[in-house]
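Hey, weird one. I pasted the 2-dehydro-3-deoxyphosphooctonate aldolase sequence into the form twice and got a warning about non-standard characters only the second time. First submission, copied straight from the form history:
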Amino acid sequence: MSTPARDVQVGHLTLGNRRPLGVIAGPCVIEGGDFAARREFAFATARAIQAIVNRVGVPWIYKASFDKANRTSSDGFRGPGLEEGLRVLEAVRMEFGVPVVTDIHTPEQAEPVAAVVDMLQTPAFLCRQTDLIQAAARAGRPVNIKKGQFLAPADMARVVEKARATGNDRILVCERGFAFGYGDLVVDMRALEILGEAGAPVVFDATHSVQKPGGKGDSSGGERRFVAALARAAVAVGVAALFLETHPDPDRAPCDGPNMVPFGQLEALLRQLKRLDEVSKDA
């Protein structure tokens, strides 16, 4: 990454395009039938990921959604909702001492979510919603803004300006592919350099970039086998962090299973990516 950018502090971590690679990792959504089950699921996933990243030696942020509002079908699994989801995320943050990020979908969610987590994230579909972007930024936490699948990377400079107009300069931008034809996404690695020109740390979402929106008819599909290749390419360009959804058994996950990396493959992938990051940032 050739363009200088402001580093961003997220909890006790600092993310920057020239700093060692960070990882945003966790399941798509908080799973479980009641609060106890949901907390246990979150604890189990956080415990497993933390053990892996500690062995590899990469800084990380735990990610899980309390509500997946952008569903293909009205019957799609969405999660526990705002109140209970935040209770679970707060418990993870306290138990594991790890920074936490989650999505918001409406401006009204920004303040209550910011009171619990270390970073807010805005969905790609909603990156042009000025009220949402500015509410997220005004809440005072760092914000990871996902680039819309319909936007050229240079267009994200205006989105970053909207966010910074609130006085919050702790903004990150996230690449997650561009819509190509019907039901497919492609990643142009030039976009990572162009996004960096907005002066923000760049995040690459390696799992949603292999998504096939609506690819299973009533839910999104994906091609998990390409996650590693895209992640390697992005790290070779140079990014501040990778966004990787991961799960103990993705094929049984109620949401985005085809995109998520199984726990059993995560450590080897992170070890490889760490080595690539060290080489790319020494260049």
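That's the output from the first submission. The warning seems to come from a hidden character in my clipboard, not from the data itself. Residues 35-56 form the longest helix (22 residues).
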